[in-house]
Design goal:
This protein has 59 residues and is mainly beta. Helix content is 10%, strand content 29%.
């Protein structure tokens, strides 16, 4: 399982947090999509955002 942090910018424009339906912030350094409102960071694997709450990291 490799981590690739490149994500299509058009995809980032339409993605929302599945928990809050709120906006996501792209953290290029960590390779995650961050939902500040939910306190979750969704991983990006092989360029694909994994938008499952069970896979997200809590912060």
């Amino acid at each position: 399982m490799s981590t690739d942090t490149s994500v299509d910018p058009r995809l980032l424009e339409i993605l929302v947090c599945p928990v809050t339906k709120g906006p996501l912030r792209y953290d290029r350094t960590a390779g995650e999509l961050v939902s500040e409102k939910a306190g979750l960071a969704y991983p990006i694997r092989d360029g694909i955002p994994i938008m499952l709450p069970d896979e997200a990291r809590k912060f």
